[in-house]
Give the backbone structure.
Amino acid sequence: MTSENALLSLQHARKSFGETQVLKDISLTVNQGEVLAIIGPSGGGKSTLLRCCTLLETLDGGELSFGDCVVTVDQGGQAIYQGKDALRRARTHFGLVFQNFNLFPHYTVMKNLTDAPVTVQKMPKAEAEAKARKLLARMGLEGKENMVPCELSGGQQQRVAIARALMLDPDVLFFDEPTSALDPELTKGVLKVIRDLAEEHMTMVIVTHEMKFARDVADHVIFMDGGVIVEQGPAADVIDNPQHDRTRAFLLSEE
Amino acid sequence: MMSLLGSGLVLTGQIFIVTLLGSLPLGVLIALGRMSKFKPLAWLMRAYISFMRGTPLMLQLMALMFGPYYLFGMQLGSDWKFWACDIGFILNYAAYFAEIYRSGIQSIPRGQYEAAEVLGYTKAQTFMRIVLPQVIKRILPAMGNEVITLVKDTSLAFVLGVMEMFTQAKAIAASQVSMLPYIIAAGIYWGFTILVEFILARIEKKLNYYHD
């Protein structure tokens, strides 16, 4: 993997909360059409890594860029953020699907999808609605346009959240444990949607506890623990044939 | 008698509506100032809220009525009492509303802000489109309490000689040596409150199309 024409490039990322170092020199790149799964125990730094990439947390050190949009440069080990404009531009490059969906409860499904394109990107309302209908159909949510999130199951809500993120045509779509709040039955539907996206070569970074899913869908897997990348490689290698004891122990405990 | 009370009721209603129109938006601004990361502003708003809640509304009204003359020698016409009355009520109620807004704003989960941020909403858009509508639903019962208190607090305008309903009732009671005007006034206040309760219930029902 080279950082040339990578959609996402993170180099030497460092992040501490107080005394605790949560990310210790993390580097990764994601290329067009690639699916990266990040696995590992809770508290290992996966979520913080994702939150730093999606600009919800600030890096202490390291370089982050989306294509040619540079978010931070590293100066003497310090991450220097490139101003509000760069952040705003960077946000047009990615979408994020949360563990708890975070749909807007007071908006209908349709408005959840169309409000950001219409208010933020000034997309004509009719165009946004047509696009939303197409996406909802792909998510198996036809006819739910006028419902509000609380009338939907968790799995349906998460699929709405995925559609909401896709409305803005992100280059990279991040998922933060997208099925952890769902029971196994509902998990299936959400995983199927993500699988379909992978088949359409959507570039994705997925933090997940679903090992079988990661193995099937991801091209590349990163195993993180204690703020470092312990092991990484092609999905099948890391999950079926882990080289490190920590990875092995973790995968055994997940079964 | 009824026509005098009726004209008083019109003024009472005016104070009530003007106070709400002024203090409901002002309260949002005070709440935002109170939560500002810019500490001097946060402290100033805190002091403001403390003062407004910590001194009698009646004294605040009198200070606005007579302060300009005693402090600055300003001669303000006989209309000033209406201004003093409206401004006093707005400034006082905005302080109470600000704290209710603050409770509502702080109850909105972080995830809502984060979702909006990732989708590219500006801070102002996030507040106006995502946060505030949810806040209103959450704080409606607490707001209702204050609004109903306001119905009866309008009677404090009597200290300024504003001829609202209570002042009228007092005048009639004195001239007729009768308790009846007070009893009728009490009934009208209650009726007013029942109307407010009805409207609040309607709004609550309207916002019931979703829950969190």
About this structure: Residues 2-34 of chain B form the longest helix (33 residues). The helical segments of chain B are 2-34, 39-54, 57-72, 80-107, 110-118, 123-153, 165-176, 180-206. Chain B has eight helices and no strands.
